[in-house]
Design brief:
The complex is a heterotrimer of chains A (about 425), B (about 375) and C (about 260).
Chain A (H helix, E strand, L loop, with lengths): L1 H24 L4 E7 L6 H14 L3 E7 L6 H12 L6 E5 L2 H8 L8 H7 L1 H4 L2 H7 E2 L2 E2 L2 E2 L3 E2 L2 E4 L1 H7 L7 H13 L3 E4 L3 H25 L8 H14 L11 H9 L3 E5 L3 H9 L9 E4 L6 E5 L1 E4 L7 H12 L1 H11 L15 H12 L1 E4 L9 H17 L2 H14 L5
Parallel strand pairs in A: 1-2, 1-3, 9-10, 12-14
Antiparallel strand pairs in A: 3-13, 4-5, 6-13, 7-12, 8-10, 8-11
Helix pairs in contact in A: 2-15, 10-11, 11-18, 17-18
Chain B lengths: L1 H34 L21 H8 L4 H33 L5 H9 L6 H11 L28 E6 L3 H20 L4 H21 L13 E5 L2 H26 L2 H9 L4 H12 L1 H16 L3 H7 L9 H10 L4 H32 L1
Antiparallel strand pairs in B: 1-2
Chain C lengths: L6 H28 L21 H41 L5 H10 L5 H14 L6 H24 L4 H9 L4 H12 L1 H16 L3 H6 L7 H4 L3 H26 L3
Classes of the chains: A alpha/beta (about 425), B mainly alpha (about 375), C mainly alpha (about 260).
């Protein structure tokens, strides 16, 4: 068996060697401007990709244009100004899903990449559910580089043992444990600034209404003010009772710190939290911190993905295609993701390169039901997401589930959800 | 010769006139035009986006529409925020200036301490104060070091609001404010020109106020539903950070003003038996009035552009600390509603005008005195 | 002359020292936080000294900032220079060469101060691109000069308003014209004004955050974009500590009477 794997690796290496000269036979030169908001903690992962690209195409000058801050809002402002001014970067970072389709594809600013997917055989290695999120009936519009999971609950196993509770599989279990924690003066669920509240909402809503209804919501088949929609807001209101009151003034890292320090029991956050805890806080996954699917979402994988596309009018088209080819390749993907703390979008990635958390997430990704995240641009377009922030604000003030559901329906109609 | 020089003067000014003409007024015109269209929505980022003229639809939507609620709260925030910043920075700055004007030992040291925050960028200030005001640390746990209980106030995340009003009654409130301004102005003028003050200010003020009180129910509602807005306590943290940053600047302005008052004048006042307090009240303060007006202009331009600081302190979607400048940025560049964003921008610009007016009045008065 | 220690002196100094401590608290917090290792940073212990000194954060930040420092310096120095010189000339005209409509023109200038940058982002981009200035330092310098003009003109106009007209008149009698009055009389008198405006402009431009990220490509990114970092604040902070006295003196010379 081991021999067989070695053989496979050798074959793959041979293939690499064979294809690499073909790619560089064209002798690409000139520039390649890559536009993203990956600086700081995510910088090294991007740099690993760029290094690979430079090794294969030494004559291309790679311009790594990162715009920091504001979870991508600043970067998007710069990008949009540039696109409107007719000066697109060669390739830019965009969340897979509606952030790509609703903003750029509908405005007819992207080139169809179906030819590249066919050429590289990617339609087979990327899960169909994912390809659906980056494609329309007219084509496929970007290359996904990573997968993050949104519905994860984090905790410290030792602390849970001390407090005599277990990681909850459902919200009812959570409420029971939360009462115990409250009596001990511990915050049951740590929460941070406003986008993390939207992040929590999507996990709660998914557990309240289930996968089918979740998808029906975004295809316009189920109204937000239907019974199921109201139920999601009701459950969410109840969950909020068990969160820290100072959430709005914390960053997501500080909410994670609350769990690490034992001031809170649980935190629902995307799996970049695993990266933060292992790299910055030097904790061992599985021992110093534990994880599970957020309550009521076992067997469901709510994903978000970063992807890169080819805008129409990119100044160095050939260089971009070489870049996208690298992003979609197994080598590129396995160089990038272990550093980024995400898992590969390919189903055939080399799991030995990932840590314990990454391996468990990859295993879930291949067997769970896959749904798209709202808070991170997969399920709804940017107009809806912006308005949803106001709806959330309204709900936080009034705690009126009915009114919030009605408002959500209004903004869904206004922003053409499901059209 | 004089004429020749006048032409030279105009020529010197002309590059600035052209630049400001294009970069300020040309751009404002462009933004105003965009605010009258429907540029936004799904294909707003197409190569040649469709822009249909829609008149003032964006403005009515912001002021009276269902989803304009967050903008209305931002607007209310901005008003309270500007007023508190002006009061805080000018009041504290003046107090510091009076302290330092008494020439304490180590004056240079204290001056530097009060002035240094001004050198920081808003991003830095925001990051530091976010730490300072985090409820589980920072300022709140300081009392524990002297054996007291920690403070519980949630500086940046409090959801409490004071001085709330219903947006529906906006017209009535506007009339009340107008009436109050007229009456106060009238009382101020009543000593100098009793008759004019009565007929032009006091009587109309009382009539207006009374009318608004009695006829409040007949006035058209500004909104179809009840919507409460007020002074969000969460903005206190942002106000503190800004006051910290800019009170040193107003201190420097006033200190310069006080130092400029001749020592003879001060000695004379003291000889006449004036106490320190009455010296400042009757002699020093009236002499630095023009400085207050400069400070109002400079601080209000800062408070209206407040963007980086709020972004760094509470992030983009914190409704209780929102600001129209931030809202405009998100509406334009996140939601792709370019025309709606332009409308917010124009409203901000119009608010700026209300801060320039005091300056205009004062400089007009001064010229009349000369 | 020795002051007597009275109750009021004690209260006076107590107030002064308490206020100074309040102003220094944020600086203290920043310094001790930047000396901590990332693992050590936590809210409930934010005021405590770090258990071990960790200087590596400074090295990391400096590596991130280094490529941007030169650009930021060029940008700030150039934009400060042009906007103060132009502002001084404008102030000279508005204060000493009034013409019909000059007051209105001045007010129109003032409005330029109140423009939130976000408002002009899109048209600014188009204009700079049409002028072939997008993506480099010259475009950024131009933008900063234009939007700095209102405030520099305001400060200089107020400053020059106090120079007595009689000085101007006697110079005119000596046959001096528009420019020679400026170079011989006005300019030498306005050094304190230059200190105030330059310091103001230098701070504003150095700390500018939004434009830096929007109007330049990465290779020309100013320092604040590289990292919203305390280190970027150090040069300006140093200038304030060293030149603070001149700043007050400049204000003293400039803005006593409007």
């Amino acid at each position: 068996m081991k021999k067989f794997i070695t053989l496979c690796c050798a074959c793959a290496a041979m293939l690499m060697l064979l294809t690499a000269p073909v790619a560089s036979a064209k002798e690409l030169s000139g520039k390649l401007e890559i536009f993203s908001w990956w600086a700081g903690d995510e910088g090294p992962a991007l740099q690993a990709l760029i290094d690979q690209y430079k090794a294969a195409n030494p004559k291309v000058e790679v311009v790594n244009a990162t715009v920091t801050g504001g979870s991508g809002v600043n970067a998007k402002a710069v990008l949009k100004t540039r696109m409107l001014g007719g000066e697109p970067p060669d390739s830019f970072q965009v969340h897979a899903g509606q952030e790509l389709i609703g903003t750029w594809v509908k405005a007819d600013r992207m080139e169809d990449l179906t030819f590249l997917f066919k050429e590289q055989g990617w339609e087979k290695v990327f899960p169909a559910g994912l390809v659906k999120q980056i494609g329309t009936d007219k084509g496929i519009w970007s290359v996904p580089v990573n997968i993050h999971r949104s519905n994860v609950v984090w905790y410290v196993p030792e602390n849970l043992k001390k407090w005599g509770i277990a990681a909850p599989a459902s919200w009812d279990e959570f409420f029971a444990a939360a009462e115990v924690l409250k009596a001990k003066g511990i915050v049951p669920l740590a929460l941070a600034e406003n986008w993390t509240i939207n992040h929590l909402w999507e996990s709660v809503a998914l557990s309240a209404i289930g996968v089918e209804n979740w998808e029906a919501l975004w295809s316009g088949k189920l109204a937000f003010d239907s019974q199921a929609g109201v139920k999601a807001w009701q459950l969410f209101g109840k969950v909020l009772e068990y969160t820290n009151k100072d959430a709005a003034s914390l960053s997501w890292q500080q909410a994670t710190d609350m769990v690490v320090d034992g001031r809170a029991a649980f935190n629902i956050m995307g799996d970049w939290a695993a990266g933060y805890m292992t790299t910055t806080k030097k904790l061992v996954p599985g021992k110093d911190f534990g994880w599970a699917a957020s309550p009521g979402t076992g067997g469901k994988f709510m994903f978000l993905a970063d992807s890169f596309g080819l805008p129409k009018g990119a100044p160095n088209r050939d260089n971009v295609i070489a870049w996208l080819t690298l992003l979609g390749s197994r080598e590129g993907s396995d160089a990038f993701n272990p550093l980024k703390g995400s898992i590969s979008a390919r189903t055939d990635s080399d799991l030995t390169k990932y840590n314990v958390y990454g391996q468990s997430a990859a295993a879930d990704f291949s067997k769970d039901l896959i749904v798209g995240s709202l808070a991170h641009g997969v399920s709804a377009n940017e107009g809806f997401m912006n308005d949803f922030a106001s709806v959330m604000e309204m709900f936080l003030k009034s705690r009126d589930a009915m009114a919030a559901a009605k408002a959500a329906q209004q903004i869904a109609v206004k922003n053409g959800i499901g059209k | 010769m004089r004429n020749h020089d006048r032409i030279k003067a105009l020529c010197t000014l002309s590059p600035s006139i052209i630049l400001i003409g294009i970069f300020v007024y040309g751009f404002i015109g462009n933004t105003f035009w965009i605010s009258l269209t429907d540029w936004g929505g799904v294909a707003s980022l197409a190569e040649n986006p469709v822009k249909n003229f829609t008149g003032f639809g964006n403005y009515t939507e912001l002021f009276a529409g269902f989803l304009g609620g967050s903008f209305r709260q931002d607007l209310v925030n901005a008003v309270y925020y500007s007023v508190s910043l002006l009061a805080g920075a000018i009041g504290i700055g003046l107090f510091l200036a009076v302290l330092l004007d008494n020439k304490p030992v180590g004056e240079a040291f204290f001056r530097t301490v009060f002035l240094y925050p001004m050198s920081l960028s808003f991003i830095v200030t925001g990051t530091i104060w976010r730490w300072m005001l985090s409820p589980q640390g920072g300022v709140n746990i300081l009392p524990t070091y002297v054996g007291l209980d920690p403070l519980q106030f949630r500086w940046l995340s409090s959801t409490e609001a004071v001085m709330e009003f219903d947006w529906q009654n906006l017209l009535q409130i506007a009339l009340y404010i107008l009436a109050a301004v007229l009456i106060i102005w009238g009382l101020w003028q009543v000593k100098q020109q009793p008759r004019r003050a009565m007929s032009r200010l006091l009587v109309p003020g009382v009539v207006l106020g009374g009318g608004a009180w009695l006829g409040g129910d007949i006035l058209p509602k500004a909104l179809f539903m009840e919507e409460m807005h007020g002074f969000n306590l969460a903005t206190l943290g942002i106000i503190m950070a800004t006051v910290w940053q800019y009170s040193g600047y107003t201190m420097a302005l006033y200190l310069a003003g006080f130092t400029g008052i001749s020592q003879d004048l001060r000695d004379a006042a003291m000889l006449d038996g004036a106490s320190s307090a009455s010296y400042y009240r009757h002699i020093a303060l009236p002499m630095v009035k023009p400085i207050t007006i400069s400070a109002v202009i400079i601080l209000s331009h800062i408070s209206l552009k407040m963007f980086d600081l709020i972004f760094a302190m509470t992030g983009p979607d914190n409704g209780s600390t929102g600001h129209p400048a931030l809202n405009m940025y998100l509406t334009t560049f996140r939601a792709n509603e370019f025309s709606r964003g332009a409308a917010i921008a124009i409203i901000l610009f119009l608010i700026a005008a209300t801060f320039i007016i005091p300056y205009l009045i004062s400089s007009y008065r001064q010229r009349r005195i000369r | 002359m020795k002051r007597k220690i009275t109750l009021s002196t004690i209260v006076f100094y107590a107030a002064l020292i308490l206020l100074a401590m309040a102003y220094l608290l944020p600086a203290y917090l920043t310094v001790i936080t930047s000396l901590k290792a990332p693992v050590d940073i936590s809210l409930p212990r934010s005021w405590e000294f770090p258990s071990t000194l960790n200087l590596s954060s400074f090295g990391d930040a400096f590596d991130l900032l280094r490529p941007n420092i030169v650009n930021s310096l060029i940008l700030t120095v150039c934009a400060t220079f042009f906007s103060t010189v132009l502002g001084s000339l404008n102030g000279y005209v508005f204060a000493k060469w009034r013409f019909p409509g000059s007051e209105i023109l001045f007010t129109l200038f003032l409005f330029g101060m109140f423009i939130p940058y976000q408002v002009v982002l899109i048209p600014l981009f188009h204009t700079l691109r049409a002028m072939h200035l997008y993506g480099g330092l010259p475009g950024l310098i131009l933008a900063h000069v234009v939007y700095g003009l209102p405030i520099t003109s305001l400060i200089f106009r107020n400053f020059y308003a106090q120079i007595p007209d009689s000085l101007m008149e006697s110079a005119t009698l000596d046959g001096a014209g528009f420019f020679s009055i400026y170079t011989r009389i006005i300019f030498p008198l306005s050094i304190p004004g230059f200190v105030v405006t330059s310091l103001w402009q230098f701070t504003q431009i150095w700390n500018e955050f939004l434009w830096g990220i929007c109007l330049t490509r990465h290779s020309a990114n100013p320092i604040t974009v590289g990292l919203a970092n305390i280190m970027a604040a150090l040069p300006v902070l140093l200038i304030y500590i060293l030149l603070g006295r001149y700043f007050i003196r400049g204000l003293l010379a400039g803005s006593v009477k409007e």
